[in-house]
Amino acid sequence: MAAVVLFDIDGTLIGLGTDVHRAAFAHAFREVYGVEASLDGIRAAGRTDTWLLFEPLRELGMTDREIAARLREAFAAMCSYVDVHLGDLQDRVLPGVRELLKELDARGAVVGLLTGNLEAIALAKMRKAGLDGCFEFGAFGEESATRSELVLVALRKASLVVGEAVLPGRTVVVGDTPLDVEAAQVHGVRSCAVASGPFDEIELREAGADVVLASLEPWDESADAILGLVP
Ligand SMILES: [Mg+2]
């Protein structure tokens, strides 16, 4: 069976600094829920967009039921906000990423996205960064509030691409936060953590990542490290 590699987006493939994405939340809070709220003070890295939408509203005293009732509408508002502000999306592809994706493909790996971003926002970011077309499938932020459940979604979608059941032990999550590592571990998926986001190598090692890299550059060494986890 082919190895499956699942990439996080923010802080892993592209640089952090997704102001448009954060502003999209504030837009949805205002337009859909009628409240002034933001992600200020919330550690967003590694979280799903569903979780990030619920959390500030819960703090304002809204019930999960009230929030969920307008969730689809809120997601649609976020996606159209990003669509209007596409020009401001982060497009800094991190060092080694383009070459690594080509190399994994050349070595026969099946490569997908595993991100907390809503699908339309994830795909817009990938288009902006010129990385669209590099991924065969993806698990996205509207499919669950928790990252570990997104791992199950990704395994299921990978199985459809591969045409047989994908084994967790033949799968690697590549991400930049302890939440990426934890989500992989829960399901017996291997993890490669990259210190290109808000966490340093020590923190990622302490989180229990199978491999910790300072950067995805040099890309050939990264490819060896990632595929070395699923020989
Ligand atoms: Mg990330």
Could you characterize the architecture of this molecule?
With 231 residues, the chain is α/β, with parallel strands linked by helices. The chain has 2 domains: 4-16 and 91-228, HAD superfamily/HAD-like (Rossmann fold); 19-88, Orthogonal Bundle (DNA polymerase, domain 1). The protein has helices at 19-33, 49-59, 64-69, 71-84, 97-106, 119-129, 147-162, 178-186, 201-206, 219-228; strands spanning 4-7, 110-114, 138-139, 171-175, 190-194, 211-213. The protein has a 6-stranded parallel β-sheet, sandwiched between helices. 46% of the residues are buried. Residues 8, 10-12, 45-46, 175-177, 197 line the site of magnesium ion.
Map the helices and strands.
Blueprint: E1 4-7, H1 19-33, H2 49-59, H3 64-69, H4 71-84, H5 97-106, E2 110-114, H6 119-129, E3 138-139, H7 147-162, E4 171-175, H8 178-186, E5 190-194, H9 201-206, E6 211-213, H10 219-228
Parallel strand pairs: 1-2, 1-4, 2-3, 4-5, 5-6
Helix pairs in contact: 1-4, 5-10, 7-8
Bound molecules: magnesium ion.
Structural class: alpha/beta
Number of helices, where a helix is a run of at least 4 consecutive DSSP H or I residues: 10
Low-confidence spans: none
Average pLDDT, all residues: 96
Spatially, the strands of the biggest sheet line up as 3-2-1-4-5-6
According to DSSP, the number of beta strands is 6
Bound molecules: magnesium ion
Query: What gap, in angstroms, lies between the N and C termini?
Result: 11 Å
- Give the overall shape: globular
CATH class call of the largest domain = Alpha Beta
Q: What's the CATH topology label of the largest domain? A: Rossmann fold
User: So, the CATH homologous superfamily of the largest domain?
Assistant: HAD superfamily/HAD-like
Q: Strand share of the residues?
A: 5-15%
Helix content: 40-55%
Total domains: 2
Rounded to an integer in angstroms, the radius of gyration calculated over CA atoms is 17 Å
One letter per element, helices H and strands E, the order comes to EHHHHHEHEHEHEHEH
Tell me about the biggest sheet? 6 strands, parallel
The CATH architecture of the largest domain would be: 3-Layer(aba) Sandwich
